[in-house]
Amino acid sequence: MLGNGSVGLAGGTDLVPLLRDGIVRADTLVDLSRGVPRGVADGRIGAGATLAELEVDPQVPDALREACRLAASPQLRAMGTIGGNLRQATRCWYWRLKYPCYLHGGDRCHAREGEHREHAIFGNERCASAHPSDVAAALIALRSRARTTRRELAVEELYRLPTDDDRDVVALAADELIVELEVPTPRASVYLKAMDRQRWAFPLVGVAAARFEDGVSLALAGVAPIPWPLAGAADLEAATPLPGTAYKVEIARALVARALAAVGA
Ligand SMILES: Cc1cc2nc3c(=O)[nH]c(=O)nc-3n(C[C@H](O)[C@H](O)[C@H](O)COP(=O)(O)OP(=O)(O)OC[C@H]3O[C@@H](n4cnc5c(N)ncnc54)[C@H](O)[C@@H]3O)c2cc1C
Ligand code: SF4
Questions:
Q1: Which residue's CA lies nearest to atom 11 of ligand 1?
Q2: Which of 172, 198, 202 to mutate to test the pocket of ligand 1 (most atoms within 8 A of CB)?
Q3: What pLDDT, on the 0 to 100 scale, is given for residue 41?
Q4: Distance 9 CA to ligand 1 centre (A)
Q5: For residue 52, what is the enclosing H or E element?
Q6: Which of 33, 94, 206, 240 could, after both became Cys, cross-link 110 (CB 3.0–4.6 A)?
Q7: Residue 54 CB less than 6 A away from ligand 1
Q8: Ligand 1 mean position to 234 CA, how many Å?
Q9: Which ligand is nearest the CA of 32, by number?
């Protein structure tokens, strides 16, 4: 039923405001609650599980539990699903105010020249937005895989930087749903988040680290138009901050060092 003007509705916490503001248009809303599984079992998480369910489930690795717990507010976590979280749209204020910017199909990034304190330090050449999902960074550090209605892929492959031919940052077709996430169990994992308030704020920088038998994986939230895997702390030196986002590099250095120490790397 999806595609051709029909849009899937899970908790509605991101989609409803976008519909209300006329940024997303839908002829029909398709209720996903009975089509997408929910619950956690044997390292698999149904994409319909809410963040509130995941933040208290002892089967869920620490990094993901903490990423869920630190996201949004209790009300939003009670409604918001992990599938919807992975598919959420950018919080860039120019985009949300419908400026005809690069991500909306235009030819310039208003944030690069304008207000960009909360924006990107990596991958920001065309669009400087900062991906808001704490959860995606945690799943990537945990080396998770997603099963969709069409295929199976690594969670990081759900995302791509926007190009002139395709301005979306999510590599899902309009009628493709995330059904389930497969989350390996690490030896240790952690999610650390710097934000403007201690509650109910998007990540200025979020750092997820997970230690496995063969090494540590890292991923960052809030630093690039997509969740940003990091091979190691040295990769932070390749950041391309804007004048207003240089402070994020300092925060990322500190949080990466703390996260590596926390997982015993
Ligand atoms: C004020 C506010 C603060 C927030 N703070 C944070 C934060 O700090 N950190 C953070 O990580 N997130 C944050 N969020 C995001 C929040 O976690 C998401 O809005 C929520 O998880 C989305 O889930 P939903 O079920 O409500 O999705 P919906 O709003 O129903 O859907 C969102 C999008 O996902 C699509 N979708 C839904 N389910 C699926 C699926 N299974 N497969 C594919 N596509 C799907 C929908 O079609 C739609 O395009 C915040 C949101 C708000 C409004
Ligand atoms: S950062 Fe991206 S979404 Fe924001 S104005 Fe620039 S192109 Fe648009």
A1: 133
A2: 202
A3: 96
A4: 10
A5: helix 51-55
A6: 94
A7: no
A8: 32
A9: 1
The residues with which 221 forms a beta bridge, in sequence order, are 206
Q: How far apart are CA 250 and CA 248, in angstroms?
A: 5
Q: CA of 242: how far to CAs of 117, 142, 250, in Å?
A: 9, 29, 13
Q: Which two tokens stand for residue 169?
A: 């940052």
Q: Which of 34, 81, 177 to mutate to test the pocket of ligand 1 (most atoms within 8 A of CB)?
A: 81
This prediction's pTM: 0.98
Confidence of residue 265 (pLDDT cuts 50, 70, 90): confident
Give the residue carrying structure tokens 């493709």: 176
Query: Bridge partners of 45?
Result: 40, 181
Pairing of the two strands 28-31 and 6-9: parallel
Distance CA 191, CA 60 (A): 13
pLDDT digit string, tens, across residues 212-230: 999 999 999 999 999 999 9
The CATH code of the domain at 6-262 is: 3.30.465.10
Domain ranges, ordered by start, for the chain: 6-262
